[in-house]
Design a protein that fits this description.
It is a single chain. It is built from 14 helices and no strands. With about 290 residues, the protein is an all-alpha fold. It has one domain (about 1-290). α1 (about 1-30) packs parallel to α13 (about 250-260). The protein is globular.
Length: about 290
């Protein structure tokens, strides 16, 4: 029963991330990466703190290794988040999102070499198919003579996916050690403090206040969706295997790509659509056989 609940929560994370990334793209293009990061982590810090006041004492009684793991996870998440936001700001939603399927590959590889998980031949074939699809969707043109054959934001999106794959694994480990809510709260608290310091140091506090006042509704829903996804994801990690949770939640790319194509009216060339189809089918199939 607990595994079934974990799978359900993975689907909740999928839905929230799909619509959340759509709003994050609009916010980063208007307000920038750091302000978007601040808004998301500020809300989670405020909302989750009342539910964790009893657990905070327990947090400081944890072994040094656990605290160090939480701090490392926070920094890695900050880097991954900034790369994610920058990729969304520069690139097309329909191109950037499929590239983030690489998170599944990174998480699976960590599962193999760190946790000793076994990868079947079918999974290897689907991973190869996924990489092929991602390569096609990221190409702007077949011709190397073009000024740039890669879609804008592609390289950043790949770096973001590789980093976020590590974050997924670290989130699963820390959530099992300290609890799902406490893990997300701690990670976001550290990022909130760093983001506040960065914005203040660069003299953008007044600008941030102005943006919050003008766009409070959009920022609120964006933050709620993203934080709901992370909380659901962290709880799912404690109930179901990490590989299954990552594979299922990663299906959010389908929602985000469809929003990019049909709401943002983003144009994809024929080979990119073929690559998109291959990537999505491969990701879904990988998730299905992993279960």
């Amino acid at each position: 029963m607990s595994v079934a609940i974990g799978i359900l929560l993975a689907f909740v994370a999928m839905l929230c991330w799909g619509f959340g990334d759509f709003l994050i793209q609009k916010t980063t293009r208007k307000d920038g990466d750091w302000e978007t990061m601040w808004a998301i982590t500020a809300l989670s810090t405020i909302i989750l703190t009342p539910f964790l006041y009893k657990d905070l004492i327990q947090l400081f009684t944890q072994q040094f290794n656990t605290i160090a793991l939480l701090l490392i996870s926070s920094i890695v998440l900050l880097v991954a988040g900034l790369l994610d936001f920058e990729a969304l700001k520069q690139g097309k939603l329909a191109v950037v999102e499929p590239l983030w399927s690489l998170e599944v590959i990174v998480s699976v590889l960590l599962g193999i070499f760190v946790a000793g998980e076994f990868l079947s031949q079918k999974q290897l074939i689907l991973i190869g198919s996924l990489i092929t699809g991602l390569f096609l969707v990221s190409l702007r043109s077949y011709h190397a003579s073009k000024r740039s054959i890669l879609e804008k934001g592609t390289i950043i999106a790949v770096l973001a996916a590789l980093t976020m794959g590590i974050v997924n694994y670290l989130t699963g480990i820390t959530a099992r050690k300290t609890g799902a809510l406490l893990t997300i709260w701690f990670l976001h608290l550290v990022i909130f403090i760093i983001a506040t310091a960065y914005i203040t140091y660069n003299g953008k506090a007044a600008q941030l206040k102005k943006h919050i006042y003008k766009q409070k509704t959009k920022l609120f829903f964006m933050s709620i969706l993203d934080n709901s996804a992370w909380v659901a994801f962290a709880f799912a990690m404690t109930l179901a295997p990490i590989s299954i949770t990552v594979a299922l939640s990663e299906s959010y790319i389908i929602i985000a790509v469809l929003l990019g194509m049909y709401v943002n009216k983003e144009f994809l060339r024929r080979h990119q659509k073929i690559g998109l189809f291959i990537a999505i089918i491969s990701a879904i199939s990988l998730a299905a056989i992993t279960i």
